[in-house]
Design brief:
The protein has 9 helices and no strands.
């Protein structure tokens, strides 16, 4: 493998495409996942507005979507991808399947974060006459913020790993470079380089998430 200017430019483009896919998909996944997570916790049998049958139905749908391996989902939603972005190749084409795959995961992460909120705090808000929306915005979200930030770091790194798998179908990014050069052309050096960059990105995201979580955690101030 020749590590020349063309290779460096290819890696730069791969990093940009990977970050574009990861953060764009994360944004839309959270746009869908946070409301879903709120609904799951609010409608739980011990929730603010319990509707157990609806909560269980929604939970089943979320679990079914989470059970589909991403590489299979990537192929299954090709017609949807083409209808939304007009193509099935490149970084843009990976965003719809990434959102579909990661939004249920985000919903469960958000639900788990809300479950960590002390029930006594919620009961205190209820006793003061707070409405369901006030409890969500003034109690649940602020109290769960540190856990939500840690969960966000985990979610984004999971989405990053999904984006790397998209290389098998020409999705672009570092995963595509690793497949084309490291796997098909037996250039192990290129594979190691792409893996090292992915590991570095994961570490940066994890550290940023943990630092923001510590800053926002009022218990350690």
């Amino acid at each position: 493998m020749t590590f020349d200017a063309a290779t460096i430019e290819m890696l730069k483009l791969g990093i940009w495409e990977t970050l574009f896919m990861t953060f764009t998909s994360s944004f839309f996944a959270y746009l869908i996942g946070i409301p879903l997570g709120i609904v799951l916790i609010v409608m739980d049998k011990d929730g603010i507005y319990p509707i157990p049958w609806l909560q269980k139905t929604l939970g089943l749908i979320i679990n079914l979507l989470r059970s589909v391996p991403f590489i299979i989902l990537l192929i299954m939603v090709i017609p949807i991808t083409k209808a939304i972005v007009g193509t099935t190749l490149g970084a843009k084409a990976v965003i719809p399947p990434l959102v579909i795959a990661s939004a249920p995961y985000v919903a469960r992460v958000v639900e788990s974060s809300f479950k960590e909120v002390d029930a006594g705090v919620i009961e205190a808000a209820k006793s003061m006459g707070a409405s369901a929306m006030q409890i969500i915005w003034k109690v649940l979200l602020p109290e769960a913020k540190p856990s939500l930030l840690v969960g966000a770091a985990l979610s984004v790194t999971t989405i990053l790993s999904y984006s790397a798998m998209s290389g098998f179908v020409g999705g672009g990014g570092l995963g595509d470079i690793a497949i084309k050069y490291g796997y098909y052309r037996y250039q192990t050096q290129m594979m190691f380089i792409t893996v090292a960059i992915l590991v570095l990105i994961v570490q940066v995201i994890q550290e940023a998430g943990m630092k923001l979580s510590r800053v926002s955690d009022k218990r350690i101030k």
